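Posting this for the archive.
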Amino acid sequence: MFIERAQVLSLLAPDVETNILKDFSLPVRKILVQQVVTFLLTGDNALQTLVSPAHVVWSLETCGQGFALPMEEEDSIVKVINLYRRWTLDPEKRPAPIEKDQQFFIQKMLQHFSMLFEPRANGKGEVEKHARLCSQVLDIFANIGRQIGSTLSVETWEIFLKLLIAVTDTVLGVDAPVRQEVLQRKLCPQLLKVLFELWLLSGTRNPALWDALRQSVKGWTHHMSLILTWKVTCFALTKRSTAILYGSSEGTDCVIVKIDDSVQNIQLDDEYVFYSWHRMLNIIGNPSEVIQHPAIFLAFMNGVEILVNQYLKIGYASKVAGKDGNRFLPPDGNTILHIFGTWLYDAIQFDRSGFDEGTALAMKILCNIMTTKHRTDFLPIYMASFYSCMQEALMKEERVLLAAITSATNLFTLEIKGLRCLVPSFIYAIHKVITKRAKPFDSVMPAEHVRRACLTLLSTLLPLPNHFGDTKFALPITDPAAKAFDVKQYMDLKAHFSMILSEALSNETYPPNLEILLNLAATWGLEEIENSSEFIKQAISLIVRKTTSSSGWPAEVALIAIKVLSAMNSMYPKLEKGYDQANVIVGNLCKYVSGLLSAGQPQATEELIVHSFKCITDWIMVEQWILEYADTKYMLLHALVLGLTGRPQRQESAPEPQVKAVPETPVKGKKAKKEQKKELEKNKELEKKEPAPMVLSAKIREAAQCALTTLLNQTGNFPSASGASVVSTLAREEDILQEVINYNEGVTAANVKEFMRYYITTDRSIVCAIDRVGEAGTFSCILVRNRYGRYAWDVELQYLPSSFQREAEGTLPEMTVPISTKPFSGVVSEKESGELSSVTSFLENADTKSAISVIEQHVAKEGEVLHASSFNLDHDVSVEVPQPADPYAGECKFQCSRMLLSHLGFLAFENRTMLYPLQMSEDFFSYLRMLDQLPERECIKVGVVFIRKGQSEEDFYSNLGGTLDYQEMVTSLGWGVNVGKHNGFLGTLDRNIQAGQVNTAPYWANHGTEVLFHVATLMPNNMSGSDKRRQVTNVYAMVIWAETMEEFTPQMIWKKVRHNVVLIVISPMPNGLYHVKLFSKNETSGIGPIVDGCVLSKYVLGHLVRDTAISAHRKETHDTETPQQHREQCLQDIYDRFKVDCNLETFYSAQFTKLKTGQVSVLEVADTAATAAATSKYHGGPPSKKSKAGSSAPIGAAPTRAAPASPAPSQVGPGTLKKDKSSGSGFSRITPSRSENKGSSSSWLTMGSRTSSAAAPSSRSQGAASLGGQHRRGAPNEDEEDHKSKKKKSSKKSSKSKKKQAEDDEF
């Protein structure tokens, strides 16, 4: 007596000796059941009455009929259920015969239970009752298996399982009556849960039973609960099996089945775990064949995904923990595909209509297997099937295409054999999505996210055309719709890359995607610039148009675009007609900046304006092209004036409106008052036409001032003869004064100070004027220090034209010209003395004897004198030319420089307030040294680490040398410099090289930035390990070369630092390309041009890594003060401390007299620790104990430049000077000092730590600056209150960073 379905399915044979009452009438059966079951449930009647097996059999035969009663007899059925529950689960309530033959009677009761599931209800209320009663029975079934399952015999279990199959098939089978739909819905989850749980508890290995279950399950696949129960059961068995094979950390200690809120822990033998796992996994069969409902098919694939992921993560936990406790190797890709491959491949290739979601998920699972297990040597059949499926998926639309793209974003970063045959198919799919030719995905995923996946995928394909050249593709595209997509070899991809990027830049609207696009455009332009500059020219034009037009990109995208444009200036030398592109960028950005400033709200667009000025400066500095474009020059200066003053520049042709003065005396009469009123109104109108200046932020003024200064100082002058490592002169006062001492006798270190003076201008420019008296002549050497650097000029007062040539040293151009070369001769001939006898005879006859003797004596005396002087005929009575004065005859030696300052107008009375003397004290020179150590440009240090395969963080800092690829990458980051001779930024490296210190480092610089790379492999291992690590990690950006990307985790670096370090991780690929990833504790947006996860070629790797490191550093330090602000603060302190206020008499007197007592020269000042103490003030905090040279300075500190080594005596002075032998009138020739860079960089990076350094510049750089400094427009004499307020603001900014600075110092 059991459910009829068991007989139909040939599970149980009927017993003719049972079910005797089935032919009795229903009233008789109802009475019998009701009476008997009521009696047996009362008290101990059952225990006392049923004393023999026959009694029990008769009672069961009678009560069992209760399960076949209609739902109207619910009370009787409930009593029978309670009776059977008591006899099966409660041993104390069982009659003795049942206890003696437990297996027989439990089998009978289980058979009777099954009869309750026979269909019988019609009305809704009856179905509810039926479902409720069946649920009670299912609970009893579950408790039987859990409580007494271990006591059941194999025969009992088999009958039990057969009855469960029959019951389940009766309720859930395809041929179940329609009226049972409600019953199915209510019982399905519980019924399947009990079936699968009891099946595992039974431990059956009867193949016939498993086959019977499998055959029956095929008829239940239209129920979602079947798939969910199967998924949970298989997952529980999988977890247990992986724990057995690979250790407890990979799974569970028992089979844990979790369904809804129910959790069952099932203890199974290890062997049966594997047996039941295999049987249960395949119980449904191939889903593409047996499942006909899309939603159920999707649920099945969800289950497959969970199971696959369980296998894929095996070994990951032990890898993270650094332990290898697995008994066996984790399953490889072939093993997983052995298990699930057929289902996945068939799901994709069957391409059933309406099953897109399940097919897409199958595609995702397949890609996940391939990417996670990419190191597997996959069987050819699996690879061929994968490529076939992938190509078919890429030709589809909507979900399947979406899954293929989003699941394969990192596919080409892995070296899977033959994978690149799919490149044409991927490019075709990317083109469809990017150009919006594919069907929309909005119902599945936001379209912008799909396009983002396409761009990420494209970033891994860009280097392929140049890398593989004319290699042909082996797998053509077979889709008829793609006939126009003609790609036969790698070189054919170039046109498609350019087209995709151009169209995407034109049409994309999602800001994150635009950021990736801009970086990809820069990357592709750099890849292609060697072959063609057409794309980069188009990209520049498009970016400029989209950035500057009113209907273009939003502000956050425009900011990134401007940064990308700025980085593109490095391509200028290879751009065809690059000056045209530079003109387009600068001209449009100038208009853009002017428009933003004129809009009246510059604070809202501050970042855009600041970065626009930086971009303009970068493109101006590539060459002197702007000198040929008058219109662009005007637009540039117009934008700079707006940025500096907030007021537009007046047109020269427009006359300034004249405002008539209103008479102060009151007017009388109505007519006069009326005219006065008209004048007032007219004046108001004129005042309205004059716009009030805008309120500009300090950042905007700073950016405009930097742009203007760069234009004035460095156009055509960078790099200078001293190289790119310095923009300031290398000339120092000490060297110039020493030259004066060496040349002039009597001049010593104590009195050489008389040859020099220090002044400071109202805009805080320090002017050092030295009378340089040397072998080459007398010059006024001017050293100017301002917020932008230090500059040296040699000035010689010249009165001679350039064409004049001196015949000999000391010969003057104006010489004495002879007026007469012979004595004067008249018309009267010369008389002899004898011819005067008539005169003497007359005198003799006259009475003049007494007088004659006197006269004779007088004449004789005169004659003697005249004869002695040859009658004065040999005397030169011509007028002589005055000889040059000796300016240094007096005690004051400050002569040439005084005249220069006077000629320039600084000593004029009307300009008296422009220049102030400075007190030359020891403290002053300490501050001056400190000012010279503050950099003029942005200084960035970047750490570089090489990690070998299998190395831990304790080991890789000790690596030296590295692979050839790594060393080539390091050389492409910058040029090598000798640390001991380098004049530029040194980071935290020590110039005074000693044993165990770094002597070589890569360095790069442009007009506004210096970058030094702290390369761990170039640092000797006899340094302290912690010092070496600190040198590399005390940065904001690091370059990590990891031989295997899978082994690297950012925590290897981050766990030793407390601040955020952006990591640029490079991993070489077997095909000669490089996979690059970005890691940051913050978002990586705004960091570029490298796109996270991209693939790069060797030719662009170093360039893009360097640009990305600079970008990362700037993002992390965007709110810190600029080098110019640090220098300005120091200059202001010098102005406040050492400026000498005096009256006119004292000021002018000091220009002609000796220095006062107490003033010293720089040669008399010892280089004490005061300089270092003062320098720390501009680091934003007190000096750290670890801030010595060669150790870690505070990371937030303003970088300092170590004082350069003194040049050789023969090289002392601003430059080689020659006297000009020309004549002139009142003109001085001012010549900037020059130096030759005699060093040449050779191969500085070797396989190990040995290097050959590039020679440092041997003498000084040139300078260019206005001696009067740069005065702000409209405020030539800025008052001190304004400077004091600026100083307070700067001090506040510095104090905010003290706490953070102290923490970094401590670290």
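The longest strand covers residues 777-786. Residues 651-665, 1180-1197, 1205-1307 have pLDDT under 50 and may be disordered.
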